[in-house]
Amino acid sequence: xxxxxxxxxxxxxxxxxxxxxxxxxxxxxxxxxxxxxxxxxxxxxxxxxxxxxxxxxxxxxxxxxxxxxxxxxxxxxxxxxxxxxxxxxxxxxxxxxxxxxxxxxxxxxxxxxxxxxxxxxxxxxxxxxxxxxxxxxxxxxxxxxxxxxxxxxxxxxxxxxxxxxxxxxxxxxxxxxxxxxxxxxxxxxxxxxxxxxxxxxxxxxxxxxxxxxxxxxxxxxxxxxxxxxxxxxxxxxxxxxxxxxxxxxxxxxxxxxxxxxxxxxxxxxxxxxxxxxxxxxxxxxxxxxxxxxxxxxxxxxxxxxxx
Length: 307
Ligand SMILES: Nc1ncnc2c1ncn2[C@@H]1O[C@H](COP(=O)(O)OP(=O)(O)OP(=O)(O)O)[C@@H](O)[C@H]1O
What we know:
Bound molecules: adenosine-5'-triphosphate
CATH architecture of the largest domain: 3-Layer(aba) Sandwich
Number of domains: 2
Order of helices and strands: EEEHEHEHHHEHEHEEHEEEHEHH
CATH class of the largest domain: Alpha Beta
Largest sheet: 6 strands, mixed
Strand order of the largest sheet: 5-6-7-3-8-9
Number of helices: 11
CATH superfamily of the largest domain: P-loop containing nucleotide triphosphate hydrolases
CATH topology of the largest domain: Rossmann fold
Shape: elongated
Number of strands: 13
Helix content: 25-40%
């Protein structure tokens, strides 16, 4: 790992404990300027804690946290770092234009109001009052407020968790425009699909440590993407050793083989004469993700990148 002063984010051996819980455990992560990075992990993985550390809301027990070459506090003070809250922050009875205009006025070098409205996809909603916005529209206003100071880095903790599918898509369209201007985005999410679609890079975090780090294509290649099912008779232990197989689950008469290479697994099953009622189904992305952070992932020999 290189030490690059141009990194937008640099965490070095960072640990944050809450009592006996190591919410972030010796984590090292560098994000070069211009990347859109998804921090992906199950509940309690340490995503919010990581973002809290980067915003200076939490102090690490050990290790160093650098944001845009300095401390999080300095980055926020200069307006170079912005965060978007999940909820709240919108003043009722004001219009979209009034609120964004007011907040813009508090920044030293704000973006022109019309540009903020356009970037957040709010042109048609500028005159609308806060209480009349849908969930997705309100979230775009929060995004606009974060955008107004023209930050270089945006940190988003589960920005779409309260949104439905359509609102989620609309939100990400706004985010894409921001990223296209060469800005850096780090967002946390539970959804592999979201990481897959919107991030240049996916960092999978599990129990405060990095479980995998790569493009979503690389991450998906690491995980078991198909399940081969057969009716199993006799000893099922050898199934575990077939090519591609990551884990085997026996339910009644059926053996479900989670595999990274369905073709190789099927060929090997055929050679063993064990193809009764054979079925191959793609694993849902969510399940694939669980296999990466759960037992199956460890069985597949995935190593912690930053151990
Ligand atoms: N203020 C706190 N006090 C005590 N424990 C905490 C605190 N904040 C976080 N934790 C614990 O630290 C661990 C990591 O929590 P964190 O909120 O960072 O995870 P997360 O990945 O953001 O989870 P989620 O997806 O559920 O938001 C969890 O075990 C959590 O219970």
